[in-house]
Structures are given as structure tokens and as C-alpha cells.
Amino acid sequence: MAEPSAQLIWFKRDLRAFDHAPLLRAAAAGPVLPLYIAEPELWQQSDASGRQWAFIAESLEELNAELTKLGAPLEVHVGDAVAVIEALHRQHNIAAIWAHEETGNAWTFARDKRVAAWSRAAGITFNEIPQGGVVRRLKTRNGWAAQWDAHMAQPILPSPALRPVKNITSQGLPQGLPQGLPQGLPSAKDLGLPPDPCPERQPGGRTNGLDALNSFLTVRGEPYRKAMSAPAAGARHCSRVSPHLAFGTLSMRETAQATWARQAALKAAATPGDNANKKWREAMRSFTGRLHWRHHFMQKLEDEPRLEFENLHRGFDGLRPTEPDAVRLQAYAAGETGLPFVDACLRSLQATGWLNFRMRAMLTAVASYHLWLPWRASGEILARRFTDYEPGIHWSQVQMQSGTTGINTIRIYNPIKQGKDQDPTGAFTREWVPELDGVPDAFLQEPWKWPEASSVLGRTYPEPIVDPVVAAREAKEKIFAARKGAGFARAADAIQNKHGSRKSGMPNTGQRRRTTKNRKATSKVKEQLMLDL
């Protein structure tokens, strides 16, 4: 076999050529073979969906166009990662594999370990480079925030010129779909995914990501702090860059630095009495904090992979049933719980692939408390519907909003109050639950109180599947009973030490009574935890 020369660039959740350290380093080392592997087994996991693949497919098309301009087009192969890479090695004599570190689900973690084991056996260096502020094999959270800031402040990397690997043929490649773009790009059906209509899904691709970021920073973002809590206003005034960060068409570093630059420009232009400038600066400050907290939650899954499947605090084991109530789970999935605002949010999410964070938190809380469903079951439904699904954020937040971390405030959202507060005109609810068109505004969020409710409920719209007041009370009693268990506080202290923010000022739960200062710190943290990207 000839002297190894091919530098294999394995794209995963980093679908860009800009600010891409593995690509830049590989280009300096030799001829480059850019690769994306469409893995059918990955797409058969319970958190995967057609809308996510559609976003990736659009992003791959744009990535291929960019890589082609740089000198080496993207190859897309369908199959098992080890089998594909091994076949490419037989064809091209790979010298090194380059990729970003990934904080994915358990399946991708196991796959990366298999690739690493194969590369060691083959004598090929597998270079995994950090992509954002998540630290692999982190020993302590002390200093993590400063480390994140320093990483984001590093110079943004340019897109390199690429030397292609020569004499590319199909010899030795796995059998299946044609290779290369666009003909070789598999469909969702090819990957075994069921139909997943999402008519208002955000389109993929770096160009769309940049457009969303720039329009947020300069046009849409002024009312961000106020608008982020409501689903309709949030859809317009949140940044909407979350799917682009999740699949890497934008880097976190370029997003952070663009936001910092906007903050500096606003500060320089500020004049006394300029309320518009003040609102913009407040919006950018809030957004910067949420970028930071994004990786804070991803770090939790990196440090404790079991939280994807197990209660972070084991004192809650056995609290909820192992198997979900099938009727309640189906009603939740269909947006037919009989709780109008909940159903509106679920149906909106189904059609758009996005929802503001407060409503994501409410949907999880309703599933975990009011419907008393195991959080993994309802969490899988939401994971599939989020175009911007990021495992580290998703499962950390699902546990937090389900009350199983042992260190976070229990939030049992009142879905009736949320509907009245976040949809005061009823326009959002009526848009997504048209069955309630004839219900007067005063009864929209509680149609069962309407004197003529029998003309709608049980006919065109279901009766509420639970009494929200009674269900919330019963859930609260069960949760707080578990928190009084022997050893609960000691275990919570250990969780806080490992995963808690060092900026929060929060005491360890079992060590001392909360002072006024600590209560204020806790309140501040509660506000910061709204990750409305």
C-alpha cells in the first residue's frame, strides 16, 4: 500500500467550512477527503425524525457547494461508520481522521468509541477537536465559565483551500445508494424514517443561519426579553438560530462574537434617553447569557451521560411508572389533551419544528406532573418534533422541568394561567385549536366552564384528560414526599457540586438555610435558565 496521504474529514453536527478547526488542520496536513455518513441505525433511534434529516440534507447541499469551491467536494455515504471508513481506507490509504468532538446521544457516543477503536487497530490517528465550550473529561466546574469565555474569544478560523484526494472510485465502498451529491443524498424514507410533515420548518443551510442571526441582531431582536415568553411573539423575535447551532451550520464562536460586536456598537451609539438603544442592549445582554447557558447544559450530559435515561437524582427512581399510560401519551402526542393552550403549543410544534423555551418547559411539566408520564416517553416525542434537537440541552432540561435533578426549583406550570398570560387575546390558541372557534374569549382556556360546553366538548374537542388543579396538587405531594427521603439532601449536594453553575451563588441544598441573598441568587438563576434561542 502506498504511503498514507488522505486526510479524512468526518462531518457530523458541524456542517460548515468556516471556523472549522479539523478542516483547517487537515488541509495543512495533506489532500482532504470530506465525508458525511448517513447512518440508518442512527436515524432509527427514538429521538430522530424526518424533519431533522430534511434540515441536515439542505445543509449538506450547501456545504457541498462550499467545499467544491474550496477544492474538494463532499462525499456522502450510507451505512455503518466503521464499515464506510474502513472501505475508504482501502481505497485511499487514510493517514488521519479529523472530526469535532460531539456531545450527542448514547448511540453516537458508542459509535465514536467504535470508530476510535478501529482507528487504533488500523494505526490511524483519530483527531477529535473541541467544537464549542463543552469540555471533555472535565474534572471540576470551577473556572468553567472563564474557560468558555476564553474559547469564544479566540480568533475565528478561515475556510481553507483544499487539495482533493485523487483517483476517487467506487471500488471497495459499501453497496447501496449512489455516492456523492446531490444524487447520492438519501431521502428520509431511504433511512427508514416515517413521514414527518412539518410545513413551516426552518430551512437548513449556512446562508439561512446567517440570515437568521443577522436579522435578529439588527432587526428582530429589540423586544427579545419580553417576547421570548410567548409562543407567537417568540417565533418572531427570538433569534431562531438554534437549529443552526445544533447542526453546526453556524459556530458558537462566530455567533458569540457577532453578538459581542453588536453590543459594542450599541454601547458606542448610546445617548441619554434613547430607550430603543437601551432595549436593544438589554436584549443582547440576555441573548449573550443564553448562549453561555446553552453549553452549560450540554456540559451536564457530557459529564453524566446516564441522564439521558436515568433520573439524575436517584431518589426519584420508582416515583413515576416505568411504562406510560398509553391513552394519556397518545393524547399528548396528538395535541388532544383537552387543555387548549397545551394542545395549541403541541400542534404548533408539530407544524413548525420550533417553540419558545417557556412553552417547551410547560409542555414537559404538563407531561411529567399533570399527566404523570415518565419523562423519557414524553421527552422522545418532543425530541423528534424539535428541528433544533440538541441532546445535551434536551435531556438536561427535560429532567430539570420534570423535577428529577434534585437541585432545581420544582415548577409545576399552570397551563390555564400560562394560556391567559402568554396568549391574552387567544389568537395563538384559536389558530391551532380551531375546534374552539365558537367558545367565547372568557372561556377559551377553560372551555369546560362555559355554560354551552356540551356543544363542543366530547364532540369536536375532547374533555380535559385530567383535572389540571387536582393533578398538579397530587404531583406536588408525590414530588415533595420524595425530596424528604433519607439521604436526599446529601445526594443533591453531590449533584450541585458536579453540575451546578459557579456563577449562581446557590448554596448546596443540604448544607445551610437559604438567606435572603441566596433566595435572590436563586431567583436570578431561574430567570437565566430560560434558554430561548
What features would you highlight for this structure?
single chain; about 525 residues; mainly alpha; 5-stranded parallel β-sheet; globular; disordered C terminus
Explain what the structure shows.
It is a single chain. With 533 residues, this protein is mainly α. Helix content is 50%, strand content 5%. It contains 22 helices and 5 strands. Helix 1 links the parallel strand 1 and strand 2. The chain is globular, with a radius of gyration of 24 Å.
Q: Name the helix and strand elements from N-terminus to C-terminus, one letter apiece.
A: EHEHHEHEHEHHHHHHHHHHHHHHHHH
The average pLDDT score comes to: 91
The helix/strand class is: mainly alpha
Q: Strand order of the main beta sheet, please?
A: 3-2-1-4-5
**Principal-axes shape call:** globular
Number of helices: 22
Measured as a percent range, the helix fraction is 40-55%
Terminal Cα separation, in Å?
50 Å
Radius of gyration: 24 Å
| Poorly predicted residue ranges | 169-178, 504-533
- What proportion strand? 5-15%
Largest beta sheet, briefly? 5 strands, parallel
Number of strands: 5
Question: What's this entry about, in short?
Answer:
With 533 residues, this protein is mostly helical.
Topology:
Blueprint: E1 6-11, H1 21-29, E2 32-38, H2 40-43, H3 50-70, E3 75-78, H4 81-92, E4 94-100, H5 106-122, E5 125-129, H6 144-153, H7 206-220, H8 224-227, H9 231-237, H10 242-246, H11 252-269, H12 275-303, H13 326-334, H14 340-352, H15 357-370, H16 375-385, H17 391-402, H18 415-422, H19 427-432, H20 468-483, H21 488-499, H22 516-528
Parallel strand pairs: 1-2, 1-4, 2-3, 4-5
